[in-house]
Amino acid sequence: MATEHGVMGASINLSTPEHQPDDAKGGPTTMSLRIDEAQLARHRSRRNLEQATVLWVLRAAALISILTTIGIVAVLVSQSVGFFQEEVCVLNEGEPIKSCEPGVNGTIQRVGIWDFLTGTKWAPLFKPYRDLGQSFGVIPLLTGTFLVAAVAGVVSLGLGIGAAIYLSEYAPESVRRVIKPVLEVLAGIPTVVYGYFALLTVGPALRFIIGDDNLGTFSALSAGLVMGIMIMPMVTTLSEDAMISVPRSLRDAAYALGATRFEVATKVVVPAALSGIVSSFILAVSRAVGETMIVYLAAGGRPNLTFNPLEAVQAMTAFIVNVALGDTPHGEIEYYTIFVVGLLLFIVTLVMNIMGRLVVQRFRQKYE
Amino acid sequence: MAIQTQRNTRKTYRLARDNVFAALFFGSVVVGVLVLAWLLIEVFVDSIGWLDWQFLTSYSSRYPDQAGILAPIAGTFWVIILTALMTVPVGIATAVYLEEFAPENRVTRLVQLNISNLAGVPSVVYGLLGLAIFVQYLFDGQRSLLAGALTLSLLVMPIVIIASQEAIRAVPPSYRDAAYAMGATRWQVVKMVVLPQAIPSMMSGIILAMSRAIGETAPILVVSSLVFITYVPTSPFDRFTVLPLQIVSWVSQPQDDFRHIAAAAIVILLIMLLTMNAAAIYIRAKFQRRAEY
């Protein structure tokens, strides 16, 4: 302990200005090695206090991200509970949509969780049509979301992996260095700009190609194509990272057997990097599911249970924005619907993100 | 002989296939780049003739030729400054805690996992959080600048934390060891060695996060709703609009002229993003040169 004090005392004396560091050079005054125990103790306790305070401040900051998660879950769950406690007039099976009268063509009931998850009609009709039969089957919103995401997935998978293979197996370093940032720009463009592009540029272009009769102003196809371009850089970057980390020796072995670049890419590199590629795809599709502005502007605003990408559909996110814009009064069932749809969206994307991570952890090929 | 010919055909086929696919793989890169070019050209061409001084200095209007983006530009600056003021200190503090102070245990791993999960939560869900907690609960139904900025700062927080963590990790351990060897406490090491080294690269990550916040539309749309604003907000409790919201409301208009002012507003938005990204790249490049030295 004594030696430790000595060393620390010396170093402090040398570095604090009031001890005139000139002394050290100035001559035979070896004052700098004098140990002032009291001062040292004061200094240390101040230092330790500072460190303890800082530690608490930092812990509090880290707590905020935990609180955010708790906040998200608490808000979504509590408002969803509110949703499932509201009583509404639900039209009986097979009744045409018209004014819902309890006992005549409908019944007053709560929306069951099962009805919500499996119902095929989403008609949370708002004021002033409140007395029309409301129906809260979320399936059309789910299919709408996944229809757009599927188109986006196909586009981003094809283009993204193609580009990743090109960048990791074919492109010379100089080309790579130019192209990668350019593709990253695609990921940095705000989604509202893509919405504009999908609605006003890609939509009309598609109508020009396949005919006005086959495609309306809004379609899952135009939204999905543009979204595919948006998430392509994500697939490319993550897949390329996985491909690059495949060891050089595996490629060399294949080349030594006379394989072409294509054979090396498809038979050696892609299989070895498969976990990373699959994970990048899952994460990108999860991004597509959670994306809002493209589907809000270009996919349409009416729930539609269909698997035809040429039709207009409403995605979960688009529904949330739609209702939020309507200035719905707090406490009505319409207000709760956006939270229950939000909860579903949160769970779907969370599961996909976890899957994306697990795929990498579970199936990663280990070399050496 | 037959085997030889067969081998040759096989070889020709394999080489041909190799070339075809080389073209296809390159083609997918080209498609990405071309679409980017198409998008940018489309936006710029649409905005020609509409982007002028009057556009920058007027408030929104029912008549496209009189409409401008003064209110959304002011709103965007307000929101981004408020967001940065809240996000940057908390984000950096969290990163410092996780990298330099946190013990390696289950809790720390949970916090880290939580942050990467938060980064994957759809932005519209943050809008719902902001609507319920900030607008309804904290401000009693009042949709304000502050509510919007609080929402956005929670949204970009994970990005700021992750970028700051990477910057901290890039500081060579030997620097820390040298300081510890002189008897410095953890906080002294962080304050005098780690942060000064890491701040330039943190800055570029933070600027990128803020540029993400500028372009975010969905959460602000949910928290603030579309409103017709003809004033420059003067306090954090005013109602506001931002550039992306203005673009949404113009894109949704059926008249063709609104498409042009939407494009003009997009050009302004892209210029702001470009400036911020250029700043981030500049800072990073400058920092790297110093690090090499």
The CA-CA distance between the termini of chain B, in Å, is 65 Å
Strand content of chain B: under 5%
- Largest protein-protein interface: A-B, 89 and 86 residues
- Percentage of residues in helical conformation of chain B: over 70%
> What would you report as the Rg of chain A, rounded to the nearest angstrom?
31 Å
Note poorly predicted spans of chain A.
1-27
The domain tally of chain B reads 2
Q: Supply Rg of chain B.
A: 25 Å
Assign the CATH class of the largest domain in chain B.
Mainly Alpha
SSE pattern of chain B, N- to C-terminal: HHHHHHHHHHH
Brief digest:
The complex is a heterodimer of chains A (368) and B (293). Chain A has 368 residues and is mainly alpha-helical.
Account of the 3D structure:
The complex is a heterodimer of chains A (368) and B (293). Helices cover 69% and strands 4% of the residues of chain A. By secondary structure, chain A is mainly alpha-helical. Chain A folds into three domains: 68 residues, no CATH class; 51 residues, no CATH class; 225 residues, MetI-like fold (Orthogonal Bundle), CATH 1.10.3720. In chain A, α5 crosses α11, α7 packs parallel to α12 and α9 packs antiparallel against α10. Chain B has two domains: 46 residues; 239 residues, MetI-like (MetI-like fold, Orthogonal Bundle). In chain B, α3 packs antiparallel against α8 and α4 packs across α6. The longest helix of chain B is centred in the N-terminal third of the chain and has 46 residues. Chain B starts with a helix and ends with a helix. At the A-B interface, α1, α3, α5, α6 and α7 of A face α1, α3, α4, α5 and α6 of B.
